[in-house]
Amino acid sequence: MQTAEQTLTARRQTPSSTLPTAITVNTEPAVNTSLLDRLEMESLMLNMDASLRVHGRHHFFTWTQGLLQNLIRHEVLICAFRNAGPGSFQVESFTTSADDTRLFSDLFRQDVAVVPHLVKTWEDNHYQPVICEIKDMSSSNALVREWTRVGASTVLAHGTYDAFGKVASLFTFACRPEAIGPKQVYFAELMVPFLELAWMRISTSRSAEATGANASVVKLITPREQEILKWIQLGKSNIEIGLILDISPLTVKNHVQKLLRKLNVQNRAQAVGKALALRILTM
Q1: 54 versus 1: which is more confidently predicted?
Q2: Residue in 32, 31, 69 with CA at minimum distance from that of residue 179
């Protein structure tokens, strides 16, 4: 399926900026699904289905560096989850263009110029995908040099945010210039939630296997908290859960905050994802 890889002629104009790193922000309207051809729609469905079958790092690698390339062709994919500390990320990279993917992870984690500016621009863009031209960044930046070395010239970034409007995860696609257009922006918007849940699932499973965390975390979750988790999974608000369980919304909020701490996650969606991975919840 090559149609998603065809060069798209619509290009974005770089806005004027006084910031040291020029970011081209996506301001075009979302692509109408009716404009996708049959093969693109089929590829989209196949990718969504493939994400649900990811249960290990090798599955994630095979999916993102194989089938996902039909939607968003990239040289490097960097996945970042925010840790508890400010500006601190858990990072992993996936690529077939370099021998040592850990280098990209380390440089992304240590970067104090490009990454914070990319996050800030994404937040200022109302949490919509952003496009960054690598040529406009400082050539002395180590991360920029590595992106350039593997042939990337454009970065497409999109993520998720928590209840306070702060970044919870960020997925950065380093691409060749002809690989990015309006459809790829649209695909990123659709696929990032699937990327986040798949990566969270493998991260949780790996952590549980390494530390025996599965059983210990389950024991920490009280019956009342498990009950609240089930209603969160069904999309209920604190007020709705309070009415169902005949407790105050403030009591529900306190339970939710305890759950987030026990599960070591940032928001309700991540709590549900981790609870599913730890078998605390079932589909």
Answers
A1: 54
A2: 69
Contacts of 89 (CB under 8 A, 6+ apart): 80, 81, 82, 83, 108, 109, 115, 170
**Per-residue pLDDT reduced to its tens digit, 132-145:** 999 888 889 999 99
Q: How many CA atoms lie within 13 A of 84 on its CB side?
A: 6
Dihedral angle sign, alpha carbons of residues 204, 82, 114, 68: positive
Burial class (CB in 10 A: 0-12, 13-18, 19+), 189: middle
- 146's tokens: 């590595």
SS3 content of the chain, % helix, strand, coil (to 5): 55, 15, 35
Q: State both tokens at 23.
A: 């970011």
Q: In terms of DSSP H, where are the helices of the chain?
A: 38-51, 57-64, 101-110, 114-124, 142-149, 182-211, 213-220, 223-233, 238-245, 249-263, 268-277
Under CATH, which number does the domain 3-206 receive?
Answer: 3.30.450.80
Domain boundaries, the chain: 3-206, 213-277
Give the separation between CA 1 and CA 170, rounded to whole angstroms: 27
pTM over 0.70: no
The answer to whether the CB of 113 falls within 8 A of the CB of 141 is yes
Tell the residue number behind the tokens 């009280």, with chain if given. Answer: 222
Task: State pLDDT tens for residues 178-231.
Answer: 899 999 999 999 999 999 999 888 876 665 554 454 566 677 889 999 999 999
Angle at the Cα of 201 (from 226 to 147), degrees rounded to 5? 145
Evaluate whether the domain defined by 213-277 bears CATH number 3.40.50.300. no
Among 71, 55, 16, CA closest to 277: 55
In DSSP terms, 133 is beta-bridged to: 154
